[in-house]
Amino acid sequence: MTSSVRRAAERGRVLAAAAALAGAVAALAGAVAVFSVDAHEPDAAAAPLMDFVPPPAGSYPLHAIMRAPDGAVLDLDGRRQPLRHFTSGKITLLGFMYASCSDPHGCPLAYQVFHTVRHRVATRPELRDRVRLVSLSFDPARDTPRAMRSYMAGVAPAAVEWAFLTTESPRRLVPLLDGFGQDVRVEADGGGRPLGPLAHVLKVFLIDARGTVREIYTTSYLYPEVILNDIQTLHLQSATQRTMR
What we know:
The chain is of the alpha+beta class. The protein has helices at residues 3-29, 107-122, 125-128, 145-151, 170-180, 224-244, and strands at 66-67, 72-74, 80-82, 91-97, 131-137, 161-165, 184-185, 199-200, 204-207, 212-217. The protein has one domain (35-56, 63-244): 3-Layer(aba) Sandwich (Glutaredoxin).
């Protein structure tokens, strides 16, 4: 059994146990446990709803999975920067995307989850300066810095950093995809430009302030509540380590 399968199985067992306990409590009370959604959140009605109760923050470990890879990316001004500037120094939630994706279970889902996570982190003083979000395009032919600037135009200003990045070329992009284990299938024309949508598995990466990947989310666990608990868990772990020094 691979480490990723073991990790998924372990999390599944924890979530299942927590859900069973919550169900028992709700049954005794004659009620159903429901997560409320902040009406002030962006597109709150579209936020994905959970059918389980995640374990409390700090009650479980998030093991180191791998170092986040580094490579050259472009910011919204077209400046070349090392990706490590966006994957270290803060707890980082990073997702690959492309602006023209229309799969409701793909990039648009991640975009909504990022919005919700950012909104909720911004309300927590202990987290807002210690967390960033990163959306990195895997469609450099179409997602130029100018296109990425248009893509992020709907993102409201907030205290929590959200970086929108792309790359200069597939040659710059492929090592990052390989390093993160992000699969993408592209059908291209004779000039190397993609034809139609890009086939990919949705993955979002939680990276600690030292640049180590600590969790990988797919659609099965891409819920704001789960991600926020994991972010809080990393924050608590970091605070404990600082206290012990």
